[in-house]
Amino acid sequence: MARRWDNRKAYYWLMGSCLALIGLAWFVVRLFSIPVAIGMSAVAAVLPPIAVIVANWGHDQR
User: Fold this and answer.
1) 47, 15 in Cβ contact below 8 A?
2) Cα–Cα nearest to 59, from 7, 13, 23
3) Measured between alpha carbons, how far is 48 from 32 in angstroms, rounded to an integer?
4) pLDDT (tens digit, 9 = 90+) per residue, 47-62?
5) What 8-state DSSP symbol labels residue 25?
6) What pTM did the predictor assign?
């Protein structure tokens, strides 16, 4: 059960950082540098699949 909780915690951290990156890119960084905002959005687009993989890591080993 402890491992499952760690996976959930990692999932929430990754998804939270995804939302933070999107929010910062769209509302703050774009005012100063559009290429950096696009880069931040690209990184944020890659994070949800990684978060799902991390959340399900070791789930089939019961």
Assistant:
1) yes
2) 7
3) 26
4) 999 999 988 887 666 5
5) H
6) 0.80
| Token pair of 16 as six digits | 């939270």
Reduced 3-state DSSP string for the chain: CHHHHHHHHHHHHHHHHHHHHHHHHHHCHHHCCHHHHHHHHHHHHHHHHHHHHHHCCCCCCC
Between CA 19 and CA 45 the distance in angstroms is: 10
Domain ranges of the chain: 7-59
CA gyration radius for the chain? Answer: 15
Tell me the two tokens of residue 42.
Answer: 């690209």
How many helices and strands, by DSSP H and E, does the chain display? 2, 0
